[in-house]
Every structure is written in structure tokens, then in C-alpha cells.
Amino acid sequence: MIPSREYKRSVVRTPKVVPSGVKGAMHWLAGKVHHATFDGKALLRQATSIHQASEQFRIISDEELQQRLLLCKEHFRRAGRDYREHIPAAMALVVEASERRLGLRPFVEQIMGALAVLKGALIEMQTGEGKTLVAALAAVFFGWSGRSCHVITVNDYLANRDYIKLEPFYTFCGVTVACVLSEQNRDERRARYASAVVYVTSKELVADFLKDRLLLHGMMEPSRRYIRAQSEREGENCPVLNGLWSAVVDEADSVLVDDAATPLIISRPVKNKPLMDACVEAVRLAAMLQRDADYTVDERFKQIMITPEGKERIEGMTPSLPSFWHSSARRDELLLLVLAAREFFKRGKDYVVSDGKVVIIDEFTGRLMPDRKWRQGTQQIVELLEGLEMSDPVEVAARISFQRFFRFFHTLSGMTGTVKGVTSEIWHIYGLNYVEIPTHRPSRREICKPKVFVEKGSKYAALLSDIETLHRAGRPVLIGTRSVRESEALAERLNSRLLPFQLLNAIYHAEEAAIIARAGEYGNITIATNMAGRGTDIILGAGIADAGGLHVMLTEPNEAERIDRQFYGRCSRQGDPGSVRAYISLDDVLLQRFFPEALLDGLLTRALLRRAPVTDSIILFLVNVAQRTAQRMAYQQRLSLMRKDDEVDKLMSFAGSGPKF
Amino acid sequence: MQEATTYSESWHLVANLRLKLRATVEVQRQFYRGEKWYVLRDPFNNRFFRVQPAAHDFIMRLNAEHTVEEVWLSCMKDFSKTAPGQADVVMLLGQLYSMNLLDTDVSPDTRQMLSRYTSTRRKEFQSQLMNILFIRLPLFDPEKLLVRFSELIHKLLSPLGAVVWLLTLLVAIKLVIDNADVALDSAQAVLAPDNLFLLYLGLIFVKACHEIGHALVCHRYGGEVHTMGLMFMIFTPLPYMDATSSWGFRNRWHRAFVGGAGMIAELFVASLAAIYWAVSGQGALHSLAYNIMFVASVSTLLFNANPLLRLDGYYILSDLLDIPNLTARSNEQLRYLLEHYVFKHSGARSTAKNRHEAIELTLYGILSAIYKVMISLGIILFIADKWLILGTLLAIAGVITGVFLPTIRFITYLFLDGRLQQSRRRVVAVSAGFLAAFTVLTVLLPFPHNIYAPGVVESFPDIKVVNMVAGHVEEYLVAPGQRIVVGQPLVRLENKELNFALMSAESRVVEMKVKERQALGKTIADLKPVLKELSVAEASLAELRRNEAELIVRARGNGIWIPANKESISGLWVERGRYLGDIVGGDRFQFAAVVAQEEVSELFDSSVNSVEVRLWGEAHQRITTGEVRLIPYQHEKLPSPALGQLGGGNVSVQATQQQSGDNAAEPFFLVNALLEKQTEAHLLHGRSGTIRFNLAPEPLLFQWYRSIYQLFQKRYRL
Q: Which residues does chain B have within 8 Å of residue A398's beta carbon, measured at their own beta carbons?
């Protein structure tokens, strides 16, 4: 056991508190200055010269190239002093290695991206510009440093695909590489995490991180952990991770921003008889309470208010509850839980019952989440209401949100198709500057004017006729929907029109990647949710480019313009032609959420029906406002979550040092 | 969904810890409002933490053998009804730990501890900076001294001591009442510059006694006093000491006694000083005694005893009401009222335990808020009067901390606070409605805008009787109030000098006539100059004759004679042109009003809608006016002394001019308004009243802006 290696296994950078108030404003300003003074041109020049320099290595033999690469590696071990000076020379070699082993010679832009990633930045690269290779170029250097490098991918399929594709390249450069997939067990994982570069999804990484922490029983301090590890036998108790040092996050906006607030929870079932007894009794009692008479329901805010009559009735019921629940606050809490479960949790929408078990449906993706459980009480109450056998309540063993987790890395960098709207947040929370990487070839994407409709019915009708026209013209069409349910509804309509199509729901990544790769072929119709088939190139079939390329249709505006644009990015990759169009109706969720019905159903509907001149522009403007507002609200929410975590850290300082999760 | 407290998401962080209360922590039982509480005290830093019995039961069970979860479960089993929920436990442990009351088996987070320490230090420093006017400088620990004199202190603070105190106080009050006139007279001179030093000496002495009083009583009931030092109040060093250990007293009367001890000591000192002052003669000690008496009584009554300031009175009230953190609680109560009644926020919870407390908190919150605004305005104006720049700086600081920041905080609370999330629509609607109403009321809706001016009723036409020649008043020929006709003699004057001049002029004429004859006879050549001289002499004689005739002052019109001075002025010398009286009797009256300079421009500029006059004593009678004339130059002499301050009016007059009292301190403009013929009101010459100029209605905001601007202009000549 090498002490230093063992030490770094659990070393975690302690992130600074997210600045707020005056400090926050200063930090924000610093970010602006940082970005303004960042010289993108210089980076591009450097990349160009590296690109030229790499040409001279075309003639050397594989052995010599490898030898030179291994020589370089020494400079980068443990990110030694002045290692940055060696980057250009080494990069030229790595570029050549890529050509030899992958058959891909990185473009100047890709080299520039890799240089930016090495500095620890968020880079914006249009979809289809080869981000995978950029990550690999940079990861080689991180790998050479001898400290763990994690390349975060969106799903297992991509992790595995990239690993297999890039493995020869890494090996040639003298870097061990592995991928961690959900089906692997801990021993396998430990072996794989030991590699210099690891391809893994954020979910797997965070889960492993939390499990490690649980094993260590609060021995978070690396040196202390090391000492304890000395006295214990190696085995199950050994952490699988190899420390957190650097990470390259693909689709950084979705990982670091959109999903950043979702906590990853490691839970364990516990026997909690008192709670279960109480649930049984509460469900029995709550059955006697009547809606509107004993309590009122606020659907908008998902809130239940107990009326005075209801209160009286509950008072009378109290004695039959276990005595722990007699205090009025606790009793009301329990009964409200039952009522909430009864009023707000709908079978088929929020959960399904299969094999005598309640399975939660993800609110946003519409997918079944067999591993997910509602928090203590709710799950049991829903099971009781469904007349099923109660399962043991699960207890949180550890939890952490993604945004907190990614702040633990020493060097964090990200790649994304579009940074618009997230730059300030990325700077604020992760301290990452952003760098825009120019496209290799000018984009030939044509953005058509969005079509605006009064309601979904007319929107779908127009959508279908457009699809049909394009289909007959032989152009491939990719249709983006916001949710699984919607994509299924659309599929049904296409079915009834006897149009052949492919439906992707981001469940079977490997198959879907294959499907979406073919989405560019003659006359193909593909329906996909935003997440489906990400990271896969859509290659145009023969002659499609002349017909205008792939046409992307967005059935509904997303919560962020960024996400819309990402979907647009599915077409016209690397200078291919392509066109996009969005379809907006006044009853879209986004508009409904932010604007009063009076405006949408009254004024705008009338204006739209009478074809008043600027209505379209007004609606597009409203969509924009709604998207901005949604983003800002989400940002505030993430920020407040962050602050709350910091608060908990502060409050819990007696529970040992370091962040608490 | 409502926040759940029984099961906490953070429970896993504490569940497996083994914690216990630190061995040194002292626990006491206390009753607040008849409710049982436990007070945990850390003797090292004298900090207190109050917990409810249920939490106390839990804390007491914490030990190093069992995990928090086990303890919680056992609590749940034994006190199922009252046991705290998981969230409560997590919160409680965090608080206990942050107060350094917990022992843990894991090594604590030293980084957090340090950062907590530095942030506390920084906050203290910042609050000192913010409170630059109230800097504290701890100097020494008086505990040892107190312990040494413990016996003495116990003897002092006994029923006997109380009797002595009361007797002294009574004697002093009697003496002061006996010498009330002298005492009040001297009070005028207290703030005179040459007295300031003595005043300050008195202040230091009294405040030292005050603080020692706190310390003694605190010690008497078992408290410890560890800090005594200097506080720089507006850069004036004053003593202070820290008696916070009294907060741990079980008996709230003891706590209140500690709070009141300062004032009791001060009153005692004031009494002694008063007795000395009463029996001693003039001298430095005499003045010092007076100053001590003054400071001790005034500061006690105005400041220390006043519960609206956070001084002794506040803590006494807080102890007596049994509501600790009165200010914070009352603010919370106000916020609750706002959230519950205005925003209809269902989640709003009152912190008040019962109706009684709710009323107390609400009242206190409102009163103290008003008082705070008033006292800060008063202090700022007071300082600005003395030093304009410092006052301006203070005012700016005051506006930032007192208006700007709270407004921003309030706005963020209204629109960004998560608590109000679900009532946001209502919040927005209510605030928008309020703003709109405010705007409409103050900016858009014109409000009546009036100018009031004092004045007197004068007869119209009003003939002022003036003597054209100086002279001694010989007699009034007509009794006051008599009807007279044109040419009727009113006053007879006598002017000996005039008589002599007349005589000499007559002789001169005679002389010249003789000279004329001579010239005619002898020297014809001299005739011309002599004739000339003669004509001059005759002219002057004629002039003097006319003047002599003027010695009888005659009426120039019909009417009733009203002499200017009530008492006879016969024998007095009156200069030419002296106002002797009026002949009133015209059938009309006019109102002569005194309009201040700052208001006159408005009168000039804007159109006057209507004018009405009300007379003192007949306020219910509205008298309408006809033509209103503004006399367009400044006056300094009031139309009647009755308008001046000396005459009971409210126009300030020059104090130097004795007797007359009709020289206004500031020039003014005169407005004459002809009064309509009246039946109800009794229009009498010389009656005073006020005139109201009804200007064109104007929104309130403009009116306020102008008044504030004028206030500044007047006070600071901006």
C-alpha cells in the first residue's frame, strides 16, 4: 500500500461557501472581468500552432511517438511544477496519437477546446463538433498527472461507447482507462476506478461516493482514514473511488445546472413499527374526513387546509392514535400526509401498481422508477390506500445534490452545446469561466419562424400535415417532445395517419442511439424526448443534404431556450444543411405556468384568431420571458438549496468535520 | 406541502452520534408566564440557552453510551406525547453545539468552529462600526471586588436600606418642591456652554453610580459581573458594566430589580445631591450638586425608565411581562399580523402564546417603531442644528440604515421570500394596490391646500388720527367711543416751543415792518432786501400759525373715536405723526392679515379660490370676504400687537423692543381682505382671528415636498 495513493482515495477539496450579498456581487463582477480579459484568440493561435507542430510527427514511427509521449508523461506527474509549459509540445504528440489510433485528426477547434478544458473552464461547442475527442485529448493530460480523472457522460451507453472507442488511444498514450456501468458490483468498480481515466455517469459516481462515505463512518479526513485503514483488513470496507481530482463533464449544462438540484439519496429500509402502526391508524381515521367539509384542497400549491369542523373531528379521533402522535402538531402532520397522498397522488399519473408494489413515475420524464421511494410515511400511506402490503419505510442514509458534489473537484471543466443563460450560474457556483469554441465549419442551419396556435389540437394538426409533406418530399424529420407522455400521444396520431416512425424515450440508450443515428436517412420520422439519443451523431443519408438535410421540429418550448437550442443542434452538424421549426400553442405548459389565463385565453386567443398583425411576435416574446423567468426561478431555487446545505453544514458541525451529506 | 417535523431528512447526520451535555453546563428551572422552562448556562462564557421541558428531558438523557437515535427512541417511548420530533432534535443539537454546550465523541469540525468564531468577531466589529456612536471598551473585572464586599452589599440591599432610600427620596422631593422656583430657573442654564463641563462631571458620576447599582444588585442575588468598562456614547466616555448573568435568575422580580437597580441608585444619588443643593449656598459644589440632580432625574425619567428604548426600562418591562426578546418578538408579531390578515398567508404562525401576549406584543411593536423614528429624527435635527455637516452625515446614515435598507429588506421579503411563495399573488396584488392607492392619494388626487394667517379686524374705511405737530398731549377732548363729526377737535396738544417760535416770529415781522418804514423814509435803496425778509418772516409766521392750529387735532371724518392707548397719555410728548387713534365708523370692516414670507409666493403665484375669516371665540362663524388686496411690500410693524407673541399671538416679535411688542421678528406681508356685511359675527375693530386662503387643490406629495423644502431652507439656509 502506497501511503500517498491511499491518502488521496478519500481526499476531497473543501469548497468555499457560495458568495452572497456584496461578496456575491463582487464575485459576479470578477466573473465578468475574468471572461472579458480571457483571450480566446490567443488560445486559438496556440491551438493552430499545436496543430501545425503535430504535422512534423506524421513521419515518426509508432514506437518513437509512444516513447516521446511517455517522456512527456513525467512532466505532468502530480501536476508538477511548470507542467503547463509542456502542454503545447505534448498536445502535438497527443494529436498525432489520436490520428494513429482513432483515425481522427483533431481540428484546431478541438485542440482549442482541449486546452480550455485543461485550464478548467466550461466550453461551448456546437453539437457535432466532436466533444468526445476534446474530452479525451484533455483527459490524457489529467491521466498523466496520476490523479483520478472522471469523464462524466449522460448515460451508461455513452460511457461504454466512448470507453470502447477511445481505449486504444488512451492506452497508446500510456493512460489506463475504464468505464463504470450501473450493473457492475463494487469489486469490479474498485478495479475500474483505479484507472487513470474513468468514464462514468454522474449518478453512478455520486452513488459510489456516498457509499464510500457511509463505509468510512464519518472518517472523512483522509489522513485519519488512512490510519484507520492501516489497522483494518482490506475488503468490503475499502472505498471504491480513487479520490476526486479532476472531472470533465459532458453536457455540462444539464448535469451542472438543470439536474444539479436533484439530490442523490442512498437509502436503506428500516423497521419502524411505530410509524407503520400510526400510518394504519391514520389512514383509517382520514377515511372519515371529507373533502370540502373537513378540509379544503389547494391544487395549485398542493396544499391542504383543515377547516374548523375538520379540526374538531380530528380532536375527537385523537385518542385512537398511538400516543406519540397525540400532540396536535404531530397528529396534523400525519393526517395531512394521508390527505395529501389521497388528494395529490394519482394512480397512473404519479405511480403505478405492479406486482403488489407501488412504483413511482418520474414527474418529468414519465419513466418508472422502481428504486425510488417516497419519504417516510408517504410511501406506506399510498400502499395502504391502494390496499397493498406495507413495505418497510426507507431511511435516508446519505444524500447529496449534484451541485454540491461537483464542487468537490479540484479541476472541474465542462463541455456543452450552449452556455447561454447558465454562464453566471456556472461561475457563481462552480467558479468556472466559459470559453466559446468557434465551429469548424460555418453552420448551415436554417431556423424557420415558429408557428403559433391557439390550442394543442390545431398545433398537432399543423404538425402532422407538415410532417406528412416533408415525409413525402423524402426529408428526414426529427420531432422533439417535452415528455414521454406527449411523445406517445404524437406517436398515436402518426399511427392513425399510417406514417412510419420511430419513437425514442431515453430508456434503452443503446438501441435508441442506433435509431437516432439513422434518423438522417431518407424519409425517416423520429420522435424523441429531449434526452433521448443524446451524444449520437445523426448522419445524413445519401442525397439528403441536397434536399435540405434533417428537419427538426420542436412541439413545445422548453423551460429554457438553451434546451430548445440543444435540440435544434441535432440537425446540421459539421456544416451539413438543416432546418428547425418550433410549434407553440397558447395552452403550452410553459405559457400556462407564467401568464394568467385571462391574458392567454382571452386577449391573445382573440388576437390570434383575428390574425392581428404582431400577435406572433408578442407570443414569441412571452415565451422568451417565460423561459427567462423559469430559468431565474430555477437558479434561485438551486441557490437556496445550496445555501441550505451550507446552513446544515454549519448547524451540524458537531457531527464531524467537512460537508455533511 | 407543509414542512414535516417528525421525521427529518437530516436525521441520518445525527442518528449515530454519541453526544452529551458538557459537564460544566449548569441547568436551572425557571418559570416564564407560569410556564416551565429550563435554562442552560455555560459558566465559562456566561451564555444562556432556554429550552422547554420536553427538550430538557431529551437533553438530559443524552449520554456517551447511547446514540442520539437510541435516546430519541427512548424519549419517544417514555414521553410519547411531548417527545420532540426528529427535526426538532436536529435543530436543538445544532443550537446547543453552537452555544458550546455539547460534548461529542467525534472530533468536531474545527474549520466551522473557527469560521463561526471569526464571523462572530467580524459581526461584533461591524456592529461597533455601525454603532460608532456607542463604542464599548471593556476595562476590568469587578467580580473580585464584589465578592470582597459581599457582606456589605447584602447589608446595604436590605429592608433597612430600602427605608433609608425611601426617606432620602422623600426628603429630597420635599426640598425640591420647596425650592421649585429656583430649581426651575436654574434649569434654563443647564445647557449653557459654561455649564457643560459640570454637567458632564455630573453625568459621569451619576452613570458610575447607576452601573454600580446594577452590579451590586446582580451580586446580591447571586449573579456574577465580569466586565466593567467605558462606553463612548457620541464620543463621550461613560461607564458601563455587564450584568447579563442576571438573566439566569429564577425569580423574575429579581431580574427586574437588577434592571431597575441603576435607576434606584441614580435616584438615591439625585436625592443626596438635591439635599446638599438645598442646604448649601452658592458655589462650585452647589452647582455640581444641581447638575447631578438634574442629570439623574431627567435621564432616568426620559431614557432609562423608558421601555421603548433598549435601556433598563426595556429589560424591566420584558422581565415583568415575561417576554424575553421583546423587540424581536413584537416584530415577529407584527409580521404575523401582516401575513395573516393582509396577505392571508395560511402558514403564518403567531409567536404569541395567548391573546394577552399578542396584544402586548402588537402594542409594543407599534409604539416602539413610532418612537424609534421620532427619536432618531429628533437626534438628527438636534445635531444638525448644531453642526450641519455632521448632522447631514448622520441623516444620510440614518436614512440608509433606517429607511433604505429596511425598505429593500421588506421588498425582498415581499417578493423573494420563500415563505410567502403561495400567497405571492395576493402579496403582489396587495402591495400593488397599496402603492396605487398611495400614488393616487398623494400624487394624483388634489387635496385642499390652504394657507392660514393671523390678523385683526379693522374698520373700513378706517381713518387713522395722527398729529401733524409734535407736542405735549394736553387733553382728550372727546371721550373714547363718542360719535364725532368732521372738524371736531379731538385732542389738544401744547407745544411751548411752538409758542415761543410763534412769538419770536411775530416780533420778527414787527421788526421787519419797522425796517420797511425806515427804508421808505431814509434809504430807499435798502427797501428791496427788507421787503424780501419781511415776506420770509411772514411766511414762517403763517406756517407757525398753521401749526398752532394743528395743535388741536381734529377729526377728518365722521365716526366713532377710538384712541390708540387705553390709558391717558395726557402730558406725554408725542412726536409728529404719532398714531393717536382711529375714527372708525365706516359701515364696513376689513381683515388685515399677516402672511409669512415663505407662504406669500404661493399667494402671489397660485389662484386663490376662496377666502374666509374666522374670529377667535367665534370659530363657528365663517365670514366671507370680498376683495382681497395684497400689499406688495414687506412690513415690519404688525397691525396689532395682539398678533405678536408678547400679545398672545403667534407671530414672533423682536424681544428687544420693550412695551410695544408689534415689531415682527421677520418681515411679513400684509393682506387686507374686505369683509362682507355680517349679521351673525360680531365684527369689532381690533378683534383678532385667522384668515384662510383656499388655494387651488394640489396633490399631497407636492405639498409635503414644499413644506419639507421650506423647513430645510428656513433651518439650514439651503
A: 12
| Residues 6 or more apart whose Cβ sits within 8 Å of residue B606 | B695, B696
Per the domain annotation, does B506 fall within a domain? Answer: yes
Q: What are the chain B neighbours of A650 within 8 Å (beta carbons)?
A: 94, 98, 112, 116
Supply the CATH number for residue B615's domain.
2.40.30.170
Residues B271 and B159 in one domain: yes
CB < 8 Å from A in window 633-652 of B: none
Q: How far is B436 from chain A (nearest CA, A)?
A: 21
Nearest residue on chain A to B3, alpha-carbon basis: A333
In this structure, the answer to whether residues B168 and B278 fall within a common structural domain is yes
| Residues B421, A337: C-beta atoms closer than 8 Å | no
B628 and B707 housed in the same domain: yes
Could you tell me which residues come within 8 angstroms of residue B164 by beta carbon, excluding any fewer than 6 positions away?
Answer: none
Please write the tens of the pLDDT for every residue from B173-215: 888 888 877 777 776 666 666 777 777 888 888 888 888 888 8
The residue from B295, B322, B349 where one domain ends is B322
Domains belonging to chain A, first-starting first, are 38-266+401-436 (3.40.50.300), 271-392 (3.90.1440.10), 444-585 (3.40.50.300)
Q: Which residue of B has its CA nearest to A14?
A: B111
| A468 has pLDDT over 80 | yes
B669 assigned to some structural domain = yes
Residues A656, B19: C-beta atoms closer than 8 Å: no
Residues B626 and B569 in one domain: no
- Cell reading at B20: 452529551
Nearest to A144 by CA among A169, A120, A170, A163: A170
Q: Does A327 touch chain B (CB under 8 A)?
A: yes
B108 part of contact set with chain A, CB < 8 Å: yes
Q: How many Cβ atoms from other residues are within 10 Å of residue B94's Cβ?
A: 22
Verify that B387 and B497 share a domain, yes or no: no
Is B580 within the bounds of a domain? Answer: no
Domain with B355, as residue range(s), is 338-444
pTM here? Answer: 0.67
Averaged pLDDT, A152-159: 88
Of all residues in chain B, the one with the smallest CA distance to A272 is: B73
Q: Total structural domains in chain B?
A: 5
**Measured distance CA(B713)–CA(B718) in Å, rounded:** 5
List of residues 6+ apart from B415 with CB closer than 8 A: B424, B427, B428
Whether chain B has a CB inside 8 Å of the CB on A395: the answer is: yes
User: A339: distance to nearest CA of chain B, Å?
Assistant: 11
A376 touching chain B per CB within 8 A: yes
pLDDT of A323-349, one tens digit each? 777 777 777 888 888 888 888 888 777
The span from the CA of B182 to the CA of B180, in Å, is 6
